[in-house]
Amino acid sequence: MGKCPSCFVLMGLMSRNSIDPIFSATEKLMENLKCNRCDHSGVKNGRSKTGVQRYQCRGCKKYWQGSYTYKACERNISEQIFTLKKESCGVRSISRILRISIVTVIRRIKRIGQQIQRPSAILKGKEYEVDELRTYIGNKGRLYWVVCAMRRDTKEIIDFKVGKRNLKTLSKVITTVLLSEARKIYTEGYYLYRSLIPKQIHGRSKYQINGIERKNLSIRTHLKRLSRKTICSQGARRCWKHV
Predict the structure, then answer these.
(1) Bridge partner list, 53
(2) If you placed Cys at 93, which of 15, 30, 88, 89 could pair as Cys (CB 3.0 to 4.6 Å)?
(3) What's this model's pTM, rounded to 2 decimal places?
(4) With 0-12 CB in 10 A as exposed, 13-18 as middle and 19+ as buried, what is 33?
(5) What pLDDT, on a 0 to 100 scale, did the predictor assign at position 60?
C-alpha cells in the first residue's frame, strides 16, 4: 500500500530530530578532544574529584576537563573577551556578561596584548602621519598621550608609545619612522616635532593628518576607557600597551 507525500515528510522530520542530538553530541566530544593550548588531539585520562572526564594532550602533555564550574576555564573565553573589548565594553561589563572575575578579565587582556606583534618589516620610502591621542590614568589630573605613527597608504599603525607629551615620548615614535627612510612625515603644528623631523620631509598641517585623526576617533569609539564622556579610566600605565 502506497504512502502519501505528507507521510514521507513526517518521517524525514522524525529521522532528522533523532539524528541531530547524535551529531551535536559528536561535535561536543570532538571539541573536547582538542587541546585548549596547542589544538592537538587528546586522549581520555581518568576523571576529576567531581567525576568530570579529564583529557591529556598528545602534543604538550597538558590536562584539561570536558566541562568546568568556573566559566573562565572554558574554551574560547579569550576570544569572547577580545570581541567584547572591541565593542566598547568595559572590564566590569565583560565581567558581568561572561560571569567571570574582573581580575581574570584584566589578566586575559594582558595576555592577549602580549601575543600581538608589531609589524616586523617596515617598507622604505613611504609617507606617514603622526598624531597624539590624549587621555588620563587614574584621574584627569594625570594626563597621558598615546603617540601613533600610521602608514598613509595602508592605514597601518607601525609604532606607538604611551607617555607624557614631551620630547622623550615623541622621539621614540619619530625615530622608528625616520629609520624607515620616510619620504614624507605629516604632523600637526606642535613645536617639538620641528626638532625631531628634518624640515625637507616634514609636513605641518592639521589638514594633512585626517587619516590618523579618523583612526583615533575609531579607537575612542571601540575602547570604553578612551570615550570622552565616561567614568571609566585606566588604573595603571603598564596596562595601556595591552588595552
Answers:
(1) 47
(2) 89
(3) 0.62
(4) middle
(5) 82
